Amino acid sequence: MTMDNNPLLDFNGLPRFGAITATDVTPAIRSLLKECQSTVNKVECDTAQATWENVVEPLENATEKLSHAWGIVSHLHSVQDTPEMRAVYNENQPLITEFFTALGQNLVLYKKYCTLQNGAEFASFSPARRKIIQNAIRDFKLSGAELAPEKKQRFADIQEQLAALSTKFSENVLDATNHYSLHIENVATLKGLPEDVLLAARTKAEQAGKAGYLFGLQFPSFYPILQYADNRELRATVYRANTTKASELGENPVWDNTGIIHEILKLRQEEAQLLGYNNYAEVSLVSKMAENTEQVRQFLIDLATRARPFAEKDLIELRRFSKENLGLDELLAHDIAYASEKLRQQRYAFSEQEIKQYFPQPKVVQGLFDITKTLYGVDIKADAASVWHPDVSFYRIEKNGQLIGQFYLDLYARESKQGGAWMDSARGRRLTTKGIQTPVAYLTCNFTAPAAGKPAYFTHDEVITLFHEFGHGLHHLLTQIDELGVSGISGVEWDAVELPSQFMENFCWEWDVLQKMSAHAETAQPLPRALYEKMLAAKNFQSGLQTLRQIEFSLFDLHLHDGHLEQHQLSVQALLNQIRSQISVLKTPDFNRFQHGFSHIFSGGYAAGYFSYKWAEVLSADAYAAFEEAGNNAEVGIKFQREILAVGGSRPALESFIAFRGRAPQIDALLRHNGMQD
């Protein structure tokens, strides 16, 4: 294939996923790197006074092409991880890291941006352009632009090592997940499991040429065992397999992430010290809403203090129920999900499986689109595009008949796909010489795929997950900012980026919304009001335990990166044990190696930022309270779009929140929504 025919070098429209092969990657990336470097050299050597047109624009144009092509490769590495794609991804990642690190360290460019900020013209720039320049100067500093040459080189080496280690961490988790297989021939062993879970396991076994039932460590496969299987030994087996994956206690030492974790933490600390900070947490917070690590710690401890009495009450009730009704004298970790589901069924007279029968994929997706139209006045329609898997669908968003954005929807778990759910940018909105370039997003989940010709049915938790990721997507797609660097999710503080996603979750509890997106698997009837009332009554079931769990993860992440390990001479496991003893009311088994699969912080963007989920939940609950106060009217939706979604990263998130709410955020709504208010 000639370079002219390389699909990764085609920027005329949407990615040609059907045409992309692993052999396209290296030639395309090297060509684009060469083009980018040529642009950098040209901007560097330009002796004219720095302007937006001769500094920012050319750099943005060149790097957007590279980021676009590499984004496609990265996406395929996440959702269609073939050995060939993994190999070329790992081959080219160091080159990408090297280029962007050098770009961030370029002192000549840094000074040109400083000239722009200090020039007379700066005041006449749009707020979006001013914010891009300010963000760039901040990022130059955080990339080591001001460091001495030998320190720059060490900093660059660290970036390359961190990129490789993060990728390897993620690949180890995926490989450990995919390799595990639990084959069960006797259906009696699986007593308690719902029929659709058994059908999926039987289908999986048939595909592997085996009799009986086959389970893996993908969430839709293993979690129903923990939640429904009467066989306690089976629950224990699956719990241990899941909590030891990619660790020294896992199936294969080649996937052990222990050494990777230590090396990542060591390199992050060295990076922070090179930049003049005490620890990596301080570096992480420079670009976030939170002001310092102590503010974050106090926020988490305060929330834990408020949640603890509710968590203790949750646990007392669960232990009493388990002893009296399930014959469990001691409640162990592998019993929690099972006992909780049984208690929920007894107390509220429904099961999650009963709810699941009401949420077929087509109705849920259409219901999501309908509430989006109600809130923001946009139409979402099926569209056509080349995709990476037959399960993927593609849609367009229109307002008054005009295209404003498009997105891919990839809902189901596959062995070649990383676990979890996420949204990512395929293309950002910007104004070009040809007009507005509309944004495009990837929306990815890992739900149970449909079986035997029936539609997939979602648990209510999965419905919430879908709404969450779509909230991220709307943040990206409904932007009205024309500057690439701060349109959509670009430039938004990490601890505010969860606001639109968590905000959308609230609508999964609205009667009118659930009515329209439910249809029973057998009767096609919508969700009955009586069952809805039971769901609502159970909404905050064990919210105290769940809140403490999130705070446990958040504090662990914070203390991994704030010097706590070194100060107290703790191992990673000892730190986690210490935090669990302080925060959790549940006893975690000694073999539990949660950290070895904590991809958010070791291969995602949440390092020293996992607290963002709880931080943004304060914002989202308070924002949704505005709808409750106004009776959910469309005017509030338009205001939320105008002040939060449309402005993207063009102004500080706190300013956007105040513009929407008329005041600073308050924690009361979060406590009320979680049933933790006295």
What is the beta-strand fraction?
5-15%
What overall geometry do the principal axes of the alpha carbons give?
globular
Second CATH tier, the architecture of the largest domain: Orthogonal Bundle
Helix content: 55-70%
Distance between the amino and carboxyl termini: 68 Å
Number of helices: 27
CATH class of the largest domain: Mainly Alpha
Could you describe the largest sheet, including whether it forms a barrel?
Answer: 5 strands, mixed
Q: Find the structural class using helix and strand composition.
A: alpha+beta
* CATH topology (level 3) name of the largest domain: Neurolysin, domain 3
Annotation, overall tally of beta strands = 9
pLDDT averaged over residues:
96
Q: Runs with pLDDT <50, length 5+? A: none
Spatial strand order of the main sheet: 3-4-5-9-6
Rg computed from alpha carbons, rounded to a whole number of angstroms: 25 Å
Number of structural units classed as domains: 4
Q: How do the strands and helices of this protein lay out in sequence?
A:
Layout: H1 22-45, H2 52-79, H3 83-104, H4 107-118, H5 127-142, H6 149-179, E1 182-184, H7 195-207, E2 213-215, H8 219-228, H9 232-244, H10 258-274, H11 280-285, H12 293-326, H13 336-348, H14 352-356, H15 361-376, E3 379-382, E4 393-399, E5 402-412, E6 422-427, E7 430-432, E8 435-437, E9 440-447, H16 460-477, H17 499-505, H18 511-516, H19 529-537, H20 543-561, H21 564-568, H22 572-583, H23 599-602, H24 612-630, H25 634-645, H26 653-661, H27 668-673
Parallel strand pairs: 5-9
Antiparallel strand pairs: 1-2, 3-4, 4-5, 6-9, 7-8
Helix pairs in contact: 1-2, 1-3, 2-3, 3-6, 4-5, 6-10, 8-9, 8-13, 12-13, 12-20, 16-17, 17-24, 20-22, 25-26
